[in-house]
Design brief:
This protein is mostly helical. The chain has helices at about 5-15, 45-50, 55-60, 80-100, 110-115, 120, 125-140, 150-155, 160-175, 180-190, 190-205, 215-225, 235-240, 245-260, 265-270, 295-315, 320-340, 355-360, 370-375, 390, 400-415, 420-435, 455, 470-475, 480-490, 500-515; strands spanning about 30-35, 40-45, 275-280, 285-290, 380-385, 445, 460, 470, 490-495. The protein contains 26 helices and 9 strands. The chain is globular, with a radius of gyration of 24 Å.
Amino acid sequence: MNGPFDEARAQLLEAVSHLLHVEPPSSYRTPKIIHDAIWGTCEYDPWEVGLLDLPVFQRLRGLKQTGFAYLTYPAAEHSRFQHVLGVVQGASRVFDSLRRRAPVDGLSPRARQAKGGLPALTDDPVAARYRVLLRLAALVHDLGHSLLSHTSERIFSLIAPFPELIATIQTRYDKRPGAAEVMVYLLVTSRQWQEACDESWERGAGPGPPPNATDWERIGRWVMGIEPDGAAKFICDIISGPLDADKLDYVARDSYFAGIPVTHDLDRFLSTVCVDYQTDPSSGRSWYRLTLPIHRGINALEQLVMSKLVLFSYLYHHQKVRAAEATFERALAREYLTSKTIAGLNRVWDLFRVQDAHVYAMVDGYPGRLPAADVAYRVLPRRVAEFRQQDVTDEGSANEASQVREYRRLARLGRPKSWDAYKDLLAYEDKLASTAGLRAGSVVVDFPSDPDYGELESLLLPGRTPDEETTAKQHLSYSDWIQAYNKHRVYARVFSFGERRDRDRVWTVLRDDFAGRGLTLSPRLQIGK
């Protein structure tokens, strides 16, 4: 992809090219063993370890995997670096399991029947090469993250040129990538990156020739969940898909380090995952997809869905985690709209050379100077109100339809997707604050996004014969569980800085605002009254 991508790539390399070299260069001749809390004993090839020594990878040690969750779950300080190592291991084990079980149940009956076979699994030299590229994709998949992981991504994704790049990719491939994934694509398709990899490959005696520009283009697309070649789509799925290694690792790792008892049987998943030959009825396109069989893999699928629901309930949507993330996000947005800087940095590309410690450095050990940095010191707003749609609408009444429309309009306001929408949200928050006699920025309105299980719900599950199939949504009732969670466990919240009397005034203003919208904010929804 050229045009705006070339310019963006050049700007990115101007900011991070110094992270692609280390002096003296690392040189390894034997594999390295690393012991991991989730995957146990893991082995990495010499050329992979050489890459991991590059500053661009070492930076990931300073990025917390779960953002501000550590402010509530103190042990949840695991890093993106740990996660990357785990995803490499998870991706490898999925691929190795498929290869080993290909003659038996690694391929579905329909995949075994398809013409042409599947060399990526059954032809040893071809499979070995794909395994190398797969591990590379797993290694690089999180290099596009920045401060506090997804929290800053929600802001830098709005800064040029990311909206244009994302829209271009979506138009071309009918797949909308995240801004962090686009950043990875820009990096790995650059000449400087490929030269750094070639050097590590040579020093580590990599197998065969190093990945070429075409290989890196493919790896970059895999990270974004894109693979036009139907015969290789299942490999892309291992990196970015409904059952990808990313989910396998973060569900297990986030729950482990947060101390949340979640049961997810990785061994069961690895022993049942398979490749199925499928045809998209809308496009007529055929491809090989990573999936689970109806009869043997349904338990593994249920565990994955339920584990994610538990993590959203206890961790990602915890009210203190949401208070921290929303406050930090608002501070970054206000800074950018005011000065066109982000976290004190002049260029969006500079975000990809810093670590979370940059947030602390911004105030030089003196909390109170910058709202964004204060969050890292746990200077957080407190809840004023907590509610769901059914709490503020009159179900079954003649006004219900108009109330639901108004609530959804408010929810969209709280989930801005553009700078214009962000300006509207900040204006609404500041209006609430001003009416309550507080300064701008004192009120935060948070409507967290519902957990998205669309890809899992539409996952096609093969049966014991080529003609037997179903979707996860048809076979399980977990879509009802997801809807129930979204309805009953996803809370919108209004937070406010200040003392108890300040929050009481915000409550009164909020109640009156909702009344003007035809919504009822009853006293039971006030927190700490």
